[in-house]
Amino acid sequence: MKKRVRKITAMILAVSMVLGVSGCGKSQKSTQDSGDTAKVKIAYQYGLAYAPLTIMQEQGLIEKNYDGDIEVEWVSLNSGSAINEGMASGDIDVACMGIAPFISGVTAGIPYKMYGTIAAQPHELLTNDDSIHSLKDITDDKKISVVNIGSIQHILLAMLAKEELGDAHALDNNLVAMSHPDGMTALMSGSVACQLTTAPYIFKAKEQDNIKEAESLDSVWPEGNAFIVGLVSDDLYENQPEVYQAVVDATQEAMDYINNNQEEAANILCQKEDVTAEMMLSWMQDPGCVYDMKLPGVMDMANFMAENDFADKAPESFEAITTESAR
């Protein structure tokens, strides 16, 4: 598994090196100054953590915060790896994904930075096996679903394994990569013994009588620590500052709307998950569900990844991988 992690990092670096050699940059001047229609392509994934993105789309907040004409393209991708590839190639301008694949990408040379947290969310290690009460009870034949190798869920499990078992890679051979919804289905059917997942899948899975939390992650990743982060390409950040600022302002406005109008927000967000507004509101009011642009825990995860062979190195500093809006 260590070799596999290094291979993933090497692939990211190779893509970013190609980008550096080609010198491709989509914008060399502000579209606002030129009078042209600005364009921004935003990639995201799925889950309750992306609620601010849903509000931004539904209410046209980027368009509202940009002084001029702007065309916003939203694309849903299934993994942080796919987002990293898009950012490295210059196809994506703004993205939202977990901290861990961002750290892998930025330390491998992908030209982007964080502009803030999109959401903190509860994470739980769930199981359908009554014999599992801690990581020590997970035998070699027990499979654990995580959304991807190198994902934040993988790293959180590794952090817990380091603390409890003394080896961050102790459970690497137990891992199965599945999307959150597929992992939840596999957990409920018994195809895997455990799943490390986030909201709303932890809430949905625990509606089943046979699904329980195996062990808390609070000791390695406290409530409120950053989960999904907002990223901006260096090209957009440097060459289209008005577009960048519109994205930042829209993100903050969406968070303010969610925090100050929870019932209204629940009415919008429930459609994404096909649940009642009441159910969505209860999920949003979980203490671990936080919409705030602060970035707690980022360097803790970066240092852990570097020290345990999930990344070749840690970032030079927090300031080196963030824009001014995140400081």
From TrEMBL:
InterPro entries: Solute-binding_3/MltF_N (IPR001638). It comes from the Bacteria. Gene3D superfamilies: Periplasmic binding protein-like II (3.40.190.10). Residues 39-268 form the Solute-binding protein family 3/N-terminal domain. Keywords: Signal. It holds the Pfam family NMT1_2. Residues 1-23 form the signal peptide. PANTHER family: ABC TRANSPORTER SUBSTRATE-BINDING PROTEIN, ALIPHATIC SULFONATES-BINDING PROTEIN-RELATED. Belongs to the bacterial solute-binding protein SsuA/TauA family. This is ABC transporter substrate-binding protein. It comes from Faecalicatena fissicatena.
